[in-house]
Amino acid sequence: MGRDDGRNDAALGSSASAALSRGRWARGKHSPTRRRLVAGILAIAAVYQFTPLKQACLRQCRSPLDFLIHRWRGPGAFEALRLGAGHGAYCVGCCWGLMAVLVIAGAMSLLWVVLIALIVFVEKLMPFGERSAQVTGAGLGLLATFVAVHPDLSMLLRGGIGI
Prior knowledge:
Elements: H1 7-22, H2 24-27, H3 32-48, H4 52-62, H5 64-71, H6 77-103, H7 110-125, H8 129-149
Helix pairs in contact: 3-6, 3-8, 4-6, 6-7, 7-8
C-alpha cells in the first residue's frame, strides 16, 4: 500500500465531474423543459414571498432576541439545541424560496449570490424588511414571466453561461 496524500480522491472527483459534464446532465441544460422549469421555480419563489407563512417566518427570523426571550425554558445543551433548531426552522422557512432560485434554477454566479445575500440582509435587518419581501416577490414574478415568454433569458441566471 502506497502513501495516500489525497491525489487519488482529487483524481476521482475530477473524473466524476468530467463524466457528468459530458453526460446527460449537460445535454439537457439548454432544453425548453429545463428553461420552463427555471421559470416555474422563479414563479414559486415569487408567490411564496407574499404568503402569510413567509411573513410569519420573517417576523421570527428578524428578532432572534425576542424569539429567545419568549421560548427560553432553562439552561443546558438540550435547551440550546432546541432553541437553535426552532429558530433555524423559521430562518429556513423565510429563505428557502431564494435559496431554491440560487441552487435549483442555477443562479450561482457571484452577481446573483451577492444580490440574494443583499435581499436577505434587507429583509432581515432593515425596518422595511417585510415590505421588501413583497418587492422581491414582484421582481421574481416579473423575471419568471420574462423567462416563460423568452426562455433564452434563463441564461442570465448563470451570468450568460446558460442553464
